[in-house]
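New here. Your pick:
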Amino acid sequence: MNSSPTYDDPGVYRTLLESTKAIPWKIDWASMRFTYIGPQIETLLGWRQDSWQTVNDWADRIHESDRQKTVDFCVAQSMQGVDHEADYQALTRDGDLVWIRDVVHVKRHPDGSVDCLVGFMFDITERKAAEDKILQLQKELETMSYRDALTGIANRRMFDRILDVEWSKARACGEPLSLVMLDIDFFKQYNDSFGHPQGDLCLQQVAGLLDDTASRTRDLCARLGGEEFVMLLPATNAEAAHAIAARFARLLARAAIPHRNSRVDDVLTVSIGVGTIVPGGQDAPEAFIELVDRRLYRAKGEGRKRIVASGD
C-alpha cells in the first residue's frame, strides 16, 4: 500500500512553503492579525516567528524612510482588492537593514469584501545592491560623457547643454549673459618644442586656472576642443566679464609656464574674446557664440596675448 502523502495534505504544502527562501504569510483582514508567517522570517530578520502578531508588527519593522509610503500603498491597494508588490527596507532585530519585496494577493469573500491577504516576502538585498551599482555606473558614465577626459572640466557637450539653460533663464529674467572664449597662443609650437605629454600637462594647467577663475556656483568653464576654452558667466555684465577675463590672464602670467617658441613672450599666453548679451526673443545662442569667436580671432589677428571685448 502506498503510504506517501497526498497532494491535498496541508502538511505537504506547509513543508514545501517552509523549505523555500521565500517567506509565506497570511493576514486576516477583519482583525488585521497574522494567522501565519513562515519560520524563515527568523533566519532573515531575527524576529521570532511568534512575534509577528498584527500588521503593526510588520509596519514597525519597516525602516522609517520607507514606512509611511509602503503602508499607505499596501492598504490602499488591498482595500481596492488589487494584488500588488512593494519593495522596502526592513529592520532586523540587530538594527541592520534588509531589502524586502512583498508580493501580496488579496483574497475576497463572495460578496466582494476582503477576506484576507496572503503573500510572500523575498530577500532582494543583493539584487538591490546590484541595481544600485548599475545606477551608480550609469551616472558615472553620464558624468564622464559631459567631462573632458584630459582636463576634467566640462566638454563641448556640457557647454552646449548649460548654455541653452542659461540662455533661457537670462531671456526670461532680463539678465546679462557673458561668454569668454580663449585660445592658447602658438600651441602647436609648444607641442613641437616640449612634446605632446608636456602639451597635455599644459592644457591641464590652463583648465585648472580657468576653474579657479570661474569660481561662482553657476559659472562654467569648458574645453571646446584642442587648445580652445570657454567660460560661461551667467548674470555677468560686460564690465565684470572683462574683469574676469583679465584676472585669468594675470593668473596665467603668474603661473609663468615656459614657452620658448612663442612669438609674443617667453611664457604661455592666450588670446581672448569676450561678449555680453541680454537675450531677446530674436536672438540665438549660435549667433552670440559666433560673435565672441570672431572677437577671439581678432585678438589673434591683432598680435595675440590680448583681450578683445567689443566690435563685430
Remarks:
- Confidence is low (pLDDT under 50) at residues 1-7.
- The first helix runs from residue 10 to 18.
- The radius of gyration is 33 Å.
- The longest strand covers residues 97-108.
